[in-house]
Design goal:
- This protein is globular.
- It is mainly alpha-helical and about 400 residues long.
- Strand 10 (about 280-285) and strand 11 form a beta hairpin.
- The protein has helices at about 5-35, 60-75, 85-95, 125-140, 145-160, 180-195, 200-215, 245-260, 265-280, 305-320, 330-345, 375-390, and strands at about 45, 60, 110, 115-120, 175-180, 215-220, 225, 225-230, 240-245, 280-285, 290, 295, 305, 360, 365, 370.
- It is about 55% helix and about 10% strand.
- Helix 8 packs parallel to helix 10 (about 305-320) and helix 9 runs antiparallel to helix 10 (about 305-320).
- A three-stranded antiparallel sheet has the order 2-3-4.
- It has twelve helices and 16 strands.
């Protein structure tokens, strides 16, 4: 009797997921605790190819928020037992060095000596602090973090609410509006609703879903647009033709979560985003995902970073879980390919637990340092993969 190829694929995926979770637990998280934190407990911006922290580059404040999420998630999954202590170090850093006036939004960038060099308030930063606060409340019942989240929402609604929907990019002058900060706000709002059941967070997520339906998603081309004019009309220059397949996959995962919470039908959106993301973004020579694609210039950008691979994994698993039964596409096979390719190309740094950042046109390494911010993507993919095999015990 010939073995069932579907069952064989499921078993291979299960093994790959378990190996990936072991890498996160035993190598990645310990590496970033040991090498990625300074003596004050704040996160360095990145590790160099030799595994040492880069002591000479500026620090984005959002990295502190992303590492708060990482340590909360690691604590929740019993990969570490000191998550609250680690988060306290990150929190003290931003409160001490990035605090500006009485704002609950921190300064945007500090230099290597912890001096504020960009005091702007940035919406992308806000999204990740909201996510971090949601996870802190979820894992540790951190009421202070929940209070931070409530105050942060009030401040962006007061200071950054944009015309024609959404929020402004920040407190600075900008040429374009972007979907990306709103996508991460969507993620944070869904997280905060899931852990608090406070309907205001779901209402805010609903505002962004409306932007997705009416602005971000191009129904004619079936893709996610990235850049817009101040009134949310699509840009007519080259920026208006740019898509990022990794973001399209990320929206698949987020839309599935939104549908679970609200009952909103999202199958058509998810199908379009997933398959168009592969159509435009998959480099067949390497099974890697392109960073950016121009709908009008096929040679626009042929680089491939680590993080889009994690979003492909999440999207494939979400589709395998929630898509219509009539959709016979083998999403678990895609998830297995994505996870194997991630491990083969990116989890091969000289230092155990670190990773490679980016490949070039000829599939050669062009960026071998490891941004701290990428660990958020890697851990989130791990959480989704773990949930998938737990929910599919009857299959595996």
């Amino acid at each position: 009797m010939n073995p069932n190829p579907l069952n064989s694929n499921h078993q291979k995926l299960k093994v790959d997921i378990e190996q990936y979770l072991a890498w996160l637990h035993k190598l990645a998280v310990p590496c970033w605790i040991e090498r990625g934190l300074d003596p004050q407990g704040a996160a360095y911006e990145r590790l160099l190819s030799n595994g040492q922290a880069d002591l000479n580059c500026d620090r984005r404040v959002r990295v502190q928020a992303r590492q708060m999420f990482v340590f909360a998630a690691a604590h929740k999954n019993q990969w570490i037992n000191n998550g609250l202590e680690l988060i306290a170090g990150l929190d003290q850093y931003v409160q001490r060095f990035a605090k500006t006036n009485n704002s609950v939004i921190f300064a945007h960038i500090l230099d290597k000596d912890n001096q504020v060099i960009n005091q702007s308030h940035d919406l992308y930063d806000v999204a990740f602090f909201l996510l971090a606060y949601g996870w802190r409340y979820h894992v540790f019942n951190d009421l202070k973090a929940l209070d931070y989240a409530n105050k942060l929402l009030l401040q962006i609604d007061t200071d950054l609410k944009g015309q024609a929907g959404g929020w402004r990019e920040g407190s600075y002058t900008y040429q374009y509006r972007r979907q990306n900060p709103h996508m991460h706000l969507f993620e944070a709002f869904l997280t905060l609703y899931s852990v608090t059941k406070d309907a205001k967070w779901l209402a805010k997520a609903g505002e962004i879903f409306s932007l997705f339906e009416t602005i971000f998603f191009d129904s004619k081309q079936q893709v996610l647009l990235e850049f817009f004019n101040h009134d949310w009309t699509p840009c007519h220059d080259a920026k208006g033709q740019i898509i990022e397949p990794g973001h399209m996959f990320e929206w698949v995962w987020l839309l599935r979560q939104y549908s679970l919470l609200t009952g909103t039908p999202v199958d058509d959106y998810c199908h379009a985003l997933y398959h168009k993301g592969l159509h435009y973004g998959l480099d067949q020579s390497s099974d890697l995902i392109l960073d950016e694609v121009s709908l009008s210039n096929t040679k626009h950008k042929q680089t491939k970073r680590c993080w889009p691979m994690t979003e492909w994994i999440k999207a494939a698993l979400a589709q395998a879980t929630y898509c219509k039964k009539s959709d016979q596409y083998n999403y678990t096979h895609d998830a297995q390919i994505a996870l194997s390719s991630l491990s083969k190309h990116f989890l091969v740094a000289n230092t155990n637990g670190s990773y490679v950042d980016q490949y070039g046109v000829e599939n050669q390494v062009i960026s071998d340092f490891a941004p701290s911010s990428t660990l958020y993507h890697l851990v989130m993919a791990g959480l989704e993969a773990k949930r998938f095999i737990q929910d599919k015990k009857d299959v595996f």
